[in-house]
Every structure is written in C-alpha cells, then in structure tokens.
Amino acid sequence: ECHVQNTAREYAKIYAAEAEPLEGFGEVPEIIPIFLVHRPANNIPYATVEEELVGEFVKYSVRDGKEVNFLRRDSEAGQKCCTFQHWVYEKTNGSLLVTDLQGVGMKLTDVGIATLAKGYKGFKGNCSISFIEQFRALHQCNKYCEMLGLKSLRTTHQKQRKAPSMKSKNLPNSSTIKQTVPKKAREPRDFISSEH
User: Fold this and answer.
1) Is position 64 annotated as part of the catalytic site?
2) Which residue windows does the record flag with biased composition (Basic and acidic residues) (predicted)?
C-alpha cells in the first residue's frame, strides 16, 4: 500500500512540475504521502499513517472503470485527475496507469496502479491490466490535457476498432461479418456517449 501510493506520489510531483508553470493551469492534484509504522508491542505490529483529509471525500476515478462519476468530468479536480492519468499513461508509453484517484479537493489518497506487464520497471501494480484498456477506451481529453499537449487517445482507439472491419471486406461471406462488426464497434461508442 505504501509502495503503490508513494510511487504514484512521485509521478504526481513530476506532473506538477510540468503543469504548474503553464498559464491558466492553476493548482495541481497532490497525492499525500503514506507511512508504514512498526508497533512491536501491538497485536498488529504494522500500520499505515497519513494526513487526515477533512471535507467531502470524492472518487474522481475508479479502479474498474464501470462507475460513471460526474464529479470526475465536471469538477476542476476531477478533470485534472483525468489529465494526470493521461499524462502518466503517455509518459510510460501506456505501461502504467494511476487509478482509483480519490480524496478531498486536490489532496488524493488510497490510489491504485495498473501496469501493462507484471514488474514494469521493477514495480508490480495492484490493479488489473484491463483498467489500462478501459482508460484508453473511455478517457475524454479536456482543456488540461490540451494545455499539456497530450495526444488524444480517441484516434488511436478508433483506428484499432476500424482495423477488423477493413479485414472483413476481404473475407468470404462478408455480408454476415458486416452485420456483426458494426454492432461490436457500436457498443463501446454507446457506453462512451453515456458519459457526455
């Protein structure tokens, strides 16, 4: 738990160093540190300690990508958290994603990390690889992504979806395939558009 949160914290510091100097970007989300404490006289000899966050606790992103959270896309903190996820994804070439961003205002805690390969740079994430795939499919860039010059994930994902339908034209009995491919391609769009 400490390793995950403090690793994400290091990424957040680098993100802050790039984002804060940008005109109009403003405050940047901070992942608070978490510490491991040894208490040898206690029944449970190890515990984690972190700063107490006072205020409304909000989940800006979730581990499984299934929960639609309007505060994620409508609030400044939520948009900046999504931009942070996009930034980490791009900086690691899609190999790592900070997930489960939650906290009070711009102070975040109890985050998760998904890695594309087990042991990415010696780090084992605590979330499924599928979270990276879901993020790539569902992320909607916002003005903060644009300020940082992040590449849209939408065009990459759409190209991947179009590739199978192009192959289907060359296959025998393509009328059957043409009926199934658009349906499969339509399902993610319907899910994505529900977030608008």
Assistant:
1) no
2) 184-196
